[in-house]
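Supplementary Methods, section 5.1.

A reviewer requested that the exact input to the structure prediction be made available. We therefore reproduce it here, unchanged from the version used in the analyses.
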Amino acid sequence: MGRVSQAQAQANRRRVVEQASQLFREQGTSVSVVELMKAAGLTHGGFYKQFASKEALIDEAVTHAFGELAEHHATTLAEHKGRRAGAQQSLIDGYLSVRHRDNPASGCPVAALATDMARDSGDHGAHRTYAEGVQDFTRWLATDDEDGIARLCTMLGALLLARAIKDSPVSEQVLSAARTALSPAPQPRA
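The structure derived from this sequence is encoded token-by-token as follows.
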């Protein structure tokens, strides 16, 4: 088999990072290199030609996931024509939905990677990216009255609990209760 072009090697690397980002959010960072490469449609032998280590891939995949989250925030804000409160409520409603609960691979890296980040005490890029991503998310959720931390904690806790009991009818009740708690109070009619 001949060598791949530099352009093909870069495309393969992007594909591995994107696939790892999804698999790590869905299954955790303990996914094996063999599984990752198979999911990307490549042989595991090429992994170390692309990455110095699995930790290096985790760093890139976490960065990629938070890039997707930032892009989602920007898109949501644009859809609401810059009206931050409307964009925030739309994001909260989507975050606390059955669809998001059931699709961690394409969902929020804050929720999906929390346990892995807590278990791994290493001081590497993924931890820094994760911490910065959490800070950015709380700033995005901030209002004039609060810094966004309580909102993110409510969203994250509800999503994790709903995923843990997703086969129970209580799961949807958890999501609904959190959405209600984070929704603005109805304004009385004049």
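The CA atoms of residues 49 and 61 lie 17 Å apart. These observations are discussed further in the main text.
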